[in-house]
Amino acid sequence: MRVGNAQYLSARDFPEHLPVFPLAGALLLPGGRLPLNIFEPRYLQMVDDVIAGKRLIGMVQPRLDDAKRADGEPELCSVGCLGRLTSFAETGDGRYLISLMGVCRFRIESEMHVRTPYRQCHILPFLGDLDTEAGAGGVDRTALLKAFRAYLDANELEADWESVSRADNATLVNALSMMAPYGPAEKQALLEASDLKTRAETLIAITEMALARDSNEPKSRLQ
Fold this sequence. Notes:
CATH superfamily of the largest domain: LON domain-like
């Protein structure tokens, strides 16, 4: 996989450890683009260090059971996604506006004891993600688009259907998963799906459950 001017082909192309950015509800997937607004001092320093280094950040959610470490920081989910910093801008008020491009998922092997204000972990990359089309042939594109259209109709939203029709299966599944307005648990389930086919099936199931739940909620009546 090539991301920007870097190429990722094997385990040798990844560091054994890297900074992680815990952010609830954020989902980055291989090939996807995640814009971030960085303002906390510790993460401003993280970006400075990343730009000077491998340009890789590990996006990961805090653990879903809200478990905390002894210092009050959240425990982390075991699976996250590596993102390569591909764009950077500094605002007049000291914030960084960055974009990460998803490279591959990773599993946290252990968290490091570090002096940096941001957290760092030893990671094991999911090398199978470097084949961006793995499982794409098994995606039920018709069912996925049907669920997507039903969700848009139910929420009176519109989409650029011309762009959707041009997208390949991998791009479509990952883009819809990242933009889906679901909670941290659903986002983690989409992240941890074993391949694109499973991720598409998971997204369809989550969407159908959301539609069923919304249709069963009583409508408020004007008095």
